[in-house]
Design a protein that fits this description.
Strand content: 15-25%
CATH architecture of the largest domain: Beta Barrel
CATH class of the largest domain: Mainly Beta
Structural class: alpha+beta
Strand order of the largest sheet: 3-2-1-4-5
Order of helices and strands: HHHEHHEEEE
Largest sheet: 5 strands, antiparallel
Shape: elongated
Radius of gyration: 23 Å
CATH topology of the largest domain: OB fold (Dihydrolipoamide Acetyltransferase, E2P)
Number of domains: 2
Number of strands: 5
Helix content: 40-55%
């Protein structure tokens, strides 16, 4: 959650700065030398800068969501008790090509853990690290972040959490 909060704030800052800059370029208030060198294409420069301005809004919105989710998850935890019905590596379930996933994951171990607590028809999977991963088929207690979906603590039933 802390990384999501900081990353979201950074993305918002960069997005707002870029939006401001490219909005100025679109109005010909910045990058005067570009307009002077390509005076015949000033309309094209303005249109491209306007398009980039709208794209930066996406960066601001994603950053705001990440910052909100990180801030909310820093103080909230959900706890579920049930059977781990699925334990899958991200490369097994992601729609991205495996080469991309391996590059994004690096040497880190992670696992998606789906727990059936019997209270709903839908099952939620949370991302667990090597420290919090549980094998498939075990009865467990899982404490996870509600929005970002990371396992904070997990323990087989019969074991005690140590803080």
């Amino acid at each position: 959650p802390v990384y999501a909060l900081l990353g979201g704030l950074l993305a918002m800052f960069v997005g707002l700065r870029a939006r401001s800059f490219f909005a100025d370029v679109a109005r010909a208030e910045a990058w005067d030398s570009l307009y002077e060198r390509f005076s015949e294409q000033d309309w094209l420069i303005s249109h491209i800068a306007t398009g980039i301005t709208f794209v930066t809004v996406i960066l601001v919105l994603v950053g705001a969501w990440a910052a909100f989710a990180g801030a909310a998850d820093m103080f909230n935890t959900i706890e579920r008790t049930g059977v781990v019905i699925r334990a899958r590596r991200p490369a097994e379930v992601t729609p991205l090509p495996r080469s991309w996933v391996k590059r994004l994951e690096g040497d880190r171990y992670s696992l998606y853990v789906a727990l059936d607590d019997g209270t709903s028809d839908t099952i939620t999977a949370w991302r667990a690290s090597e420290r919090t991963a549980m094998p498939q088929g075990v009865d467990a207690v899982v404490r996870a972040t509600p929005i970002l979906g990371y396992v904070r603590r997990a323990s087989p039933i019969g074991h005690v959490f140590h803080d």
